[in-house]
Amino acid sequence: MSAHPNLSTTTDLELFIHQFHQAVETESPSNDKAALHRSARLFSALGEGLMGEPAQIDVIDGFPHLVWRFGNGPRRVVLIGHHDTVWPLGTIDDMPFTISGGIIRGPGTDDMKGGVLIAMHALKKVKEQLGTLDGVTLLVTADEELGSLTSRDLIEHESAHARASLVFESGGPNGEVKVARKGVAIYHLNVTGRAAHAGVEPEKGINATVEVASQVVKIAGLHKPEAGTSVVPSFMHSGTTTNTVPANATLSIDSRATSAREQQRVDQALRRLRPVIPGAQLHLDGGINRPPWERKVSAHLFARARKVAQELGHDELKPIMVGGGSDGNFTAALGTPTLDGLGTVGGGSHAVDEHARIASILPRVDLTAGLVVDLLTSDQ
C-alpha cells in the first residue's frame, strides 16, 4: 500500500467550514431547478479550486448533474454525492448555518453537502500525493431526493466497471460506514368508485373509502419483518364531503426489502390486487426504485477501508446496514464493490435538528483520501 496523503490540518478545516457555509446557504431543493443550477455553479467553482478542474455539468430534464471525469481510461474509483436537498427555499431563514459546541447546523449539513465537500477535499489530497487523478470520477447529482430518476444512467455508466464506488451520504451515529441497504419500492394505489348522495341513495354509489380500506388490510398482510421486509400503507386520502359516497381514494405504500426475491414477492402481490366491491376499479402506479444492496458486495472493500483507518490511527471502523436507500443501491446491484456513509457524522437528516459534527470532518477526508490512493495504486 502506498503511503497515505498528509493528514489534514487546522487550515484545511477552516477552508472546509467556509465552503460548507457557502454550500448550505446556497439552497437547492430538488424541485427547484433554478436553485439547483445556482448550487451546481457553486460546487463546480469549489471543485475547480480544490481539484484544478471545473465540472462538466450534464443537464437532464432540467436537472444539473456535475461530473468530474479525470483521465480517459477505465474508471477505477467513482465517488458519488448529491447537491439537492429536501428543504424548500427560505428554510435557511429559519434554520441558519450555525456553529456551536462543535456542531454545525443548517439545511443539508447531514444530507449531504458536507459529504460532497469531503469527497472534493479528499481528491485534492490524492492529487497532491499522486500528481494525478486519472481513473477517478466524481459525480454530484441533482435529483437523489426524488429517486435519482434522471441521474441513474450516469451513476451506472460511470460505476459499471469500476474497482469501487464510494458514496458520501452521512455516516452512522458512531461513525460507522454503510455496507448494505434495503431495496426501496414506492407505490400509489388509486381507487375509483362512484359518487352518490350518502343520505338519499347510498346504494347507487360505489364507496372508494370502503374499497381502499379493504385493500389496506391486504397490503399490510404483505409485511414480513422476519425476512427483513417492510410493507407500510402510509398516506391515504378519500372522499370529498360528509354526505357524499366517496368516488375516489388514493393510498401510498412504502416497501423495503433486504433481498431481490422479497422485493419481487411484494411487487407481484401488489400487482395482483383485485377490487372487493363490485364496480370498483384499482390502478397501481410506481414500483421498485432501488434494488437491495446485499452486504457481500462490500465485504472486501470494507476490509480495505478498515485497514486504512487503522493505519491512520483512527478508532476501529465499523460497518452498519440501514433501511434507507441511496445511489449505492444502484452501484452495488451492478456488482461494483460499494461503500457508503463516508460523509459527515451527525444526524437529523430531513429534520429540523439536521447537523454535522466538526470532529468527524477531517478524519473522513483523510480516510477517503487514503482509501482512494490505495485503490489507485494497489494491484488487488
Automatic annotation (TrEMBL):
Under InterPro entries, the record lists: Bact_exopeptidase_dim_dom, Pept_M20_glutamate_carboxypep, Peptidase_M20, Peptidase_M20_dimer, Peptidase_M20A
Q: Which Gene3D superfamilies match?
A: 3.30.70.360, Zn peptidases (3.40.630.10)
Q: Where is the Peptidase M20 dimerisation domain?
A: 179-271
**What molecular functions are annotated in GO for this chain?**
carboxypeptidase activity; metal ion binding
Q: Might you give the EC number(s) for this enzyme?
A: 3.4.17.11
UniProt keyword terms in alphabetical order: Carboxypeptidase, Hydrolase, Metal-binding, Protease
Catalytic site positions: 84, 144 (proton acceptor)
User: Which N-terminal residues, if any, form the signal peptide?
Assistant: none
Q: Name one Pfam family in it.
A: M20_dimer
Xref: PANTHER family = ACETYLORNITHINE DEACETYLASE, BLL0789 PROTEIN
Protein's name in the database: Peptidase dimerization domain protein
Q: What is the lineage of its organism?
A: Bacteria, Bacillati, Actinomycetota, Actinomycetes, Micrococcales
